[in-house]
Design a protein that fits this description.
This protein is α/β, with parallel strands linked by helices and about 475 residues long. The chain has 4 domains: about 110 residues, DnaA, N-terminal domain (GMP Synthetase, Chain A, domain 3); about 160 residues, 3-Layer(aba) Sandwich (Rossmann fold), CATH 3.40.50.300; about 70 residues, Helicase, Ruva Protein, domain 3 (Orthogonal Bundle); about 90 residues, Chromosomal Replication Initiator Protein Dnaa, Chain: A (Orthogonal Bundle). It contains 22 helices and 8 strands. It has a 5-stranded parallel sheet with strand order 5-6-7-4-8, sandwiched between helices. A 3-stranded mixed sheet has the order 1-2-3. α9 runs antiparallel to α10, α17 packs antiparallel against α19 and α19 crosses α21. It is elongated. The chain starts with 12 loop residues before the first helix and ends with a helix. The relative contact order is 0.07. The N terminus is likely disordered.
């Protein structure tokens, strides 16, 4: 149940007594329905009332059964899933606790015909006088996102190159639709807006339409409400390039999926380019129309992985260079190491750091940076992002425990010997230092003859990967942990 459903209705007990049904008289039912709407208005925004509840019309109240008409079954499903408890409470307050509600879909047949119909022809547009449906908002691409400032690392180079390729010749390749898939903060929206900005700069005559999944839902629902489905489809299919950001939002939205399916099929017939982003691959989209999934799989699916350490460092340096600012190297390493969750989090922290350094006119210490990170993106209220809370363990303690376990002198363990036995022990110690402390890569490297952060990260990743395949190594690591 959503938060809004937990809101109590403000209807007095004397209002309830006065609102008892009086037979099936139509005017009486209308009066009671107005009281129901008044109660709902105290708990819901006016836009919600206008969109979802004003289209409902009371028909009759017979034998404790209230009959209400709705424009479509989609309306019924939406109201029941989003406002079910609140709606029941309002009905009970206005009509009585024992009243049952029955919905009558009066225009369902007309709606199905509209969805199945093609966009209106010029002759149909000329005949009859209809009020034009408001067009979707202007296609406004975020000017910050371009191909040349997309830092995606080696793993995401294919996604970048494929998107650039399609942007240079939209609608003429086999890569249609182009589906950009990745988790939150991997750069899906960046690539989508970079695509649009590229066309805006190089193909100014291209007609582009950009909608989020949520935006498409609301636009389509408004079209259904106002019997303007054909006009809506005509507007969508007039585009040369159609963008839909976060299609996964439409999960379980049956009617909107049907509308999108028709729009996509018409756009493909007209050789318009379709660019879609999703957190999930097509075969992982749950509660989706199989035909819509099939359309998504016909084109090219490119995947975006989370940024690696080097990419995060590149993004940090880009923010600093763009604003003419500097941070100590150990702070840059710290940021790149710990802000692992997603790019949105990294950008948020960098915007704050850049603003603070610019406005105060001075650089920042590591402690100041740690404090800002803890305020912007705390992890369960404790610790540094990307680092699990552990007991206070020092690097010296880990080095000593590893030294004792392998019977290797501390100075040799921390030295530069290339004997395999010493390398293995040193890599295990480095792994434990990163796993059990919040020290930066450079700080850990300092304790091992000033290893650079890349070498420290290599040692950590090697032990971590080998542990999944080597139970004996995992046992060794666990035994050393037990000594701490």
């Amino acid at each position: 149940m959503s938060d809004v459903q937990a809101v109590r209705l403000n209807m007095r007990s004397d209002d309830l007594d006065a609102s008892r049904p009086a037979g099936s008289h139509r005017d009486g039912v209308k009066d009671q329905w107005e009281k129901c709407l008044t109660a709902l208005k105290t708990a819901l925004p006016s836009q919600t009332i206008q969109t979802w509840f004003l289209p409902i019309k009371p028909v009759s109240l017979i034998d404790e059964t209230l009959i209400l008409t709705l424009p479509s079954r989609f309306f019924q499903e939406w109201i029941e899933s989003h406002y079910g408890e609140l709606f029941k409470e309002a009905i009970a307050a206005a009509f009585g606790e024992t009243v049952q509600v029955k919905f009558l879909i009066v225009s369902e047949q007309e709606e199905q015909q509209q969805i199945a119909a093609a966009a209106p022809s010029p002759e149909e547009d000329a005949g009859g006088e209809q009020t034009a449906m408001p067009a979707p908002e202007a296609c406004d691409f975020d000017h910050r996102f371009h191909f040349d400032n997309f830092f995606g690392g080696m793993e995401n180079q294919f996604a970048l190159k494929a998107t650039q390729h399609v942007a240079r010749q939209p609608g003429t390749t086999e890569y249609n639709p182009l589906l950009i898939q990745g988790d939150i903060g991997t750069g899906k929206t960046h690539l989508l807006h970079a695509f649009g900005n590229h066309l805006h700069e190089h193909r100014t005559e291209t007609r582009q339409i950009l909608l989020s999944g949520e935006g498409f839902l609301h636009e389509y629902v408004n079209a259904l409400q106002s019997n303007r489905t054909n006009q809506f489809i005509a507007q969508m299919t007039a585009a040369n390039v159609f963008y839909l950001d976060d299609i996964h939002f439409l999960a379980n939205k049956t009617k909107s999926q049907e509308g999108l399916l028709f729009v996509i099929s018409e756009l493909l017939k007209r050789k318009a380019q379709i660019v879609i982003t999703s957190q999930l691959a097509p075969n992982q989209l749950i509660q989706f129309n199989p035909k819509l999934i099939a359309f998504l799989q016909k084109g090219l699916v490119v995947n975006l992985a989370a940024c690696d350490y080097n990419t995060r460092e590149q993004i940090i340096r880009h923010h600093l260079e763009k604003n003419g600012l500097r941070l100590e190297e150990k702070i840059i390493f710290y940021l790149a190491e710990h802000l692992q969750n997603n790019v949105h989090q990294l950008h948020s922290v960098m915007v704050r750091l850049v603003a603070q350094m610019s406005l105060l006119g001075k650089s920042m210490t590591l402690e100041e940076v740690r404090y800002i990170i803890s305020r912007i993106c705390p992890q369960d209220g404790a610790g540094t992002p990307g680092v699990s809370p552990h007991q206070e363990i020092r690097i010296d303690s880990i080095v000593t425990a590893t030294s004792n376990f392998f019977n290797i002198p501390v100075d040799i363990l921390q030295g530069v010997s290339r004997k395999q036995k010493l390398i293995n022990a040193r890599q295990i110690a480095i792994y434990l230092c990163r796993e059990l402390t919040s020290e930066s890569l450079s700080a850990i490297g300092y304790h091992f003859s000033n290893l650079n952060h890349a070498s420290v990260l290599y040692s950590y990743n090697k032990v971590k990967q080998n542990m999944t395949q080597n139970p004996r190594l995992k046992s060794t690591v666990d035994k050393i942990k037990s000594l701490l």
